[in-house]
Write a structure and sequence with these properties.
Helices cover 43% and strands 15% of the residues. By secondary structure, it is of the alpha/beta class. The strands form 3 sheets. A 7-stranded mixed β-sheet has the order 2-8-7-6-5-3-4, sandwiched between helices. Helix 3 crosses helix 10, helix 5 packs parallel to helix 6 and helix 11 runs parallel beside helix 13.
Length: 384
């Protein structure tokens, strides 16, 4: 019996493929964004306490009230977004689950969705899975400058949404307020929605500001904001994400999330709620400082090895130019580097529609200091 046509359109994740290749050689996995850094104890304790108190059954489809209220308070204080925890917020199975539920709820087959390239591969996969059509607008390295003329040209009568990922995976691009205002103006003029993935909102470097699209004038009812705590609390396996949207859209997203996942894991929701409530500004500023130091260490190693990095403005990934390595494709170059150094990255083709991806590899820097140092030294030795 054949698989569905829908399955045939989905490509294997290069991220997971390189993770498997790394495991075979017992290498240092800098491909998958697993986030090896420690979990804040208050988050673990909150989940453990919830389990001990019997919070082990289904939650409401859109998440426990404690978490939705904590997210609403955080949105008001940090993102400048006003959200009703009962009408606007849907907790789901990670930010990726929130994005999938959003696509299923709001996109129809044939709808066109604009993404900025380099893009996050799972965004493309979620769009394709609902039979919508991704359209890519290239950004220019090394700062990943937005081509607004190209954005205007990409919009057609079938365009339904623009996806903005800030801070970006894999680029590390942090969209400025001015850039977001320009995107907002285009979205309003063409009457399209904006879907923002802000999962890396606390990973913003060099004094930059994270700006949420929904905080801009006139954009709250046109924007679906997606976030989560997988990266912030180093709990990528817990799958706790959320979306924020106007009430009608939120109801549809919640219905789709219910169909797909029933609910996010109940005791883990309690753990995340405890973390949001207990951890103050110093936790987030320390997080930024720590990851900026990791960025500087590893990007320095790449530069020394002759693999120039597009130094990220945020998030915890870096795209490095590996065009000097042997191979015709980035995948061949990634496997070559893994063989020579034991360091695994993701082929750039996973993040680009066109040939530009063959130049790049993506590395995840959210590693323990010990593993990051081992990787940095291996990359530096490779140069010699």
């Amino acid at each position: 019996m054949k698989k569905s046509d829908r399955t045939a359109r989905l490509a294997q994740s290069d991220i997971r493929a390189m993770t498997l290749a790394c495991a075979k050689v017992n290498g240092i996995n800098m491909s998958q964004g697993v986030c090896d850094t420690p979990v804040p104890p208050v988050v673990v304790q909150g989940a453990q306490q919830a389990m001990a108190q019997g919070h082990n059954i289904y939650s409401r489809f859109d998440g426990i009230l404690e978490l939705r209220q904590a997210i609403a308070d955080k949105l008001a204080a940090y993102n400048r977004i006003t959200a009703d925890p009962d009408a606007n917020i849907t907790v789901s199975a990670g930010a990726t689950g929130s994005f999938q539920a959003t696509c299923m709820a709001l996109l129809n087959p044939g709808d066109e969705v604009i993404l900025f390239e380099p893009f996050y591969a799972y965004h493309i996969q979620a769009i394709v899975a609902v039979e919508a059509v991704p359209r890519c607008v290239s950004m220019r390295p090394p700062d990943w400058t937005v081509d607004f003329k190209g954005l205007e040209q990409a919009i057609t009568s079938r365009t339904k949404a623009i996806v903005v990922n800030t801070p970006g995976n894999p680029s590390g691009k942090v969209f400025t307020r001015r850039e977001l205002e320009q995107i907002a103006e285009i979205a309003c003029r063409h009457d399209v929605m904006v879907i923002t993935d802000e999962i890396y909102e606390y990973f913003v470097f060099d004094g930059r500001e994270h700006v949420s699209m929904a905080s801009l004038p006139g954009m709250a009812d046109r924007t679906i904001t997606i976030g989560g705590y997988s990266k912030t609390f180093s709990i990528t396996g817990w799958r706790i994400g959320y979306s924020v949207a106007e009430a009608t859209w939120a109801k549809a997203i919640g219905a789709m999330s219910d169909v797909l996942y029933v609910c996010a894991p109940t005791p883990l929701q309690h753990g995340v709620a405890a973390g949001i409530r207990a951890l103050g500004p110093s936790f987030y500023s320390d997080l930024t400082k720590e990851h900026q130091q990791k960025r500087d260490r590893f990007c320095g190693a790449l530069a020394q090895a002759g693999l120039p990095p597009a130094v990220p403005q945020g998030a915890y990934y870096v795209l490095a130019d590996v065009s000097r390595l042997p191979g015709k494709t980035s995948r061949e170059r990634a496997l070559y580097l893994l063989d020579k150094t034991g360091v695994a990255g993701v082929p750039g083709e996973a993040f680009f529609e066109g040939p530009e991806g063959s130049r790049f590899m993506r590395f995840c820097m959210a590693k323990t200091d010990q593993d990051l140092e081992r990787a940095s030294q291996a990359i530096e030795r490779f140069r010699s």
